Amino acid sequence: MARKVMALGHRGEASEPDFLRGVLGELVLTFLFVFIGVGAAITAAGCSAPPIANPLLLPYEFIPVAAYHDAGKTTTGGGGGGDAELTAVALGQALVVAVIATAGFHISGGHVNPAVTLSLAVGDHITLFRSSMYVLAQLLGSSAACALLRWLTGGLAPPVHMLAHGVGPVQGVVAEIIFTFSLLFVIYAAVIDPRKLAPGIGPLLSGLLVGANTIAGGTLTGASMNPARTFGPALAAGVWTHHWVYWVGPLTGGPLAVLVYECLFMADNTRHQLLPQNE
């Protein structure tokens, strides 16, 4: 299938009512997504007694991640375990992505993720000008959500995505590329492709994949797949260790998935036939 050229957009686009609604929508939707998602992570970490350090989150006091792995177990002391905490976080991420993406689909597309926005720009589904405004809105919404959470919790630093002990930056980038590739591949197959089997459930499927990736990436990078989701907590906590990994990985994996799908799997509005059509 022939590749489309990315649209730059124009200055007059900013005066269109739909443009402003879309940008404000991304601001509000990303605020809600991060507030609920990070809030769920704080709650999950707080339910472990004493707080633990795991490869997905840095709890309130920034216990070194190495201590978690060197202990050879998922928790220190009695009480809740790391597996239960990770499952709770993954469930929270899956639910909030599914609901927020569905609620915001008719407003802005419900991106709440710079990797999704850039990827759709690569696929010529949004102009570069609008996508840049979306990304700014997403970062602002995430930052505001984490700042509010820190104030509401009496100054507790929000959990920050970190590489697990023994996982280097290059390995982290590769992991984030794969996780984000899978996310955009599902979005393209379930939302963008006109041959999709069940219109309307794309956001739900995307949310389920985010939850699955969160579990799969719990011992690697935490499977951010979303630079805005990582940026807000890092800004509020002042922790920037390997932060670039969570930009390079998603912003590479997402567009790569779009290119692969557009070039190899996108076709006319005809579904795959299991039997040969010509004898």
Automatic annotation (TrEMBL):
Q: How does it sit in the membrane?
A: Multi-pass membrane protein
Record bears the keyword Metal-binding: no
Instruction: Identify the keywords attached in UniProt to this record, alphabetized.
Output: Membrane, Repeat, Transmembrane, Transmembrane helix, Transport
* Transmembrane spans: 27-47, 133-153, 173-192, 204-224, 244-267
InterPro entries reported for this sequence: Aquaporin-like, Aquaporin_transptr, MIP, MIP_CS
SUPFAM superfamilies hit by this protein = Aquaporin-like
Location (main, coarse):
membrane
Tell me a Gene Ontology molecular-function term this record carries.
water channel activity
The record's subcellular locations are:
Membrane
Q: Which Pfam families match?
A: MIP
Task: Please give the superkingdom of this protein's source.
Answer: Eukaryota
GO (cellular component) term, any one: membrane
Q: Which family does it belong to?
A: Belongs to the MIP/aquaporin (TC 1.A.8) family.
Q: What's the protein name?
A: Uncharacterized protein
Q: Which organism is it from?
A: Eleusine coracana subsp. coracana
